[in-house]
Automatic annotation (TrEMBL):
Keywords: Dioxygenase, Iron, Metal-binding, Oxidoreductase, Vitamin C. This is Fe2OG dioxygenase domain-containing protein. It comes from the Bacteria. The keyword Metal-binding applies. The lineage of its organism: Bacteria, Pseudomonadati, Pseudomonadota, Gammaproteobacteria, Moraxellales. It comes from Acinetobacter vivianii. GO terms for molecular function: dioxygenase activity; iron ion binding; L-ascorbic acid binding; oxidoreductase activity, acting on paired donors, with incorporation or reduction of molecular oxygen. Residues 130-243 form the Fe2OG dioxygenase domain. Its cofactor is L-ascorbate. InterPro entries: DUF2086, Oxoglu/Fe-dep_dioxygenase_dom, Pro_4_hyd_alph. Gene3D superfamilies: q2cbj1_9rhob like domain.
Length: 245
């Protein structure tokens, strides 16, 4: 018998809670990203893809070529978010807030992130940031996303996540996730990752701390997607701060 929607949701939450968060925390500190395998089932990925044409769910559609962001399209969800996305957003935030607080503390940035996501959204609202930022992205052949950072106001959370909803080398080829790391007074370093369908990739929104001989310094990081060689690639992006109205 197929699992009910509630049982499927609980399975996702159980997988998030049972992940190796000590290992994930260490990976975030060392490299600025970490991967949790197969958080969503193929069925859940397909269900999220099927939300794409339902216009009522979205507050804004962006044609990337128009703004020179790349080639493709993405749509920002409206509140209330679909239940699966809402639960993942809240659950992962509570795991990442301690990492974010360590980063800001060692870089001497005067902001503390509360332990729960609803409390953090209250901080966003106090700064006029009330628009939902989770989004679904769609790329066809030749599509790509230029290197960028997702900042939508004065209040931001330094970590975010993406879940690829299509299966590489079946639904599409190419379309790797790219991180570009700019160390001070040095050449940029690129990291290329190809998550599988349903994998959850956590990565830094803007920077990560790096320890040097005289303490910690900021390493700026951007992210993007390499060109799709063939097929279609869908992904779900979850950003934890809201956008300015």
């Amino acid at each position: 018998m197929p699992l009910s929607e509630q049982d499927q949701l609980q399975t996702v939450i159980d997988q998030i809670q049972s992940a190796d968060w000590d290992g994930i925390t260490e990976q975030m500190h060392q490299q600025g990203f970490a991967l949790i395998r197969q958080v969503l089932s193929p069925q859940q990925c397909e269900q999220l893809q099927q939300l794409y044409p339902q216009a009522r769910l979205y507050r804004k559609t962006v044609e990337m070529q128009r703004y020179r962001f790349g080639l493709g399209e993405y749509k920002y969800f409206n509140y209330p978010l679909p239940n699966l996305i809402e639960r993942i957003r809240h659950e992962i935030y509570s795991r990442l807030a301690p990492i974010a607080n360590v980063w800001f503390r060692v870089l001497k940035i005067e902001r503390t992130f509360p332990p729960s996501h609803p409390e953090f959204l209250q901080q966003c609202q106090q700064h006029g940031q009330m628009l939902a930022t989770p989004l679904i992205l769609k790329y066809g052949q030749g599509g790509f996303n230029t290197l960028h950072q997702d900042l939508y106001g004065d209040v931001y959370f330094p970590l975010q996540l993406v879940i690829v909803l299509s299966q590489p080398n079946r639904d599409f080829s190419g379309g790797e996730f790219v991180l570009s790391q700019q160390n001070p007074r040095a050449q940029s370093k690129a990291v290329v990752i190809q998550p599988q369908q349903g994998d959850l990739l956590i990565f830094t929104t803007q920077f990560k701390p790096e320890k040097g001989s005289q303490g910690y310094y900021r390493v700026n990081i951007k992210h993007g997607v390499s060109p799709i060689l063939q097929g279609e690639r869908y992904s779900l992006g979850i950003i934890f701060h809201d956008a300015v109205s």
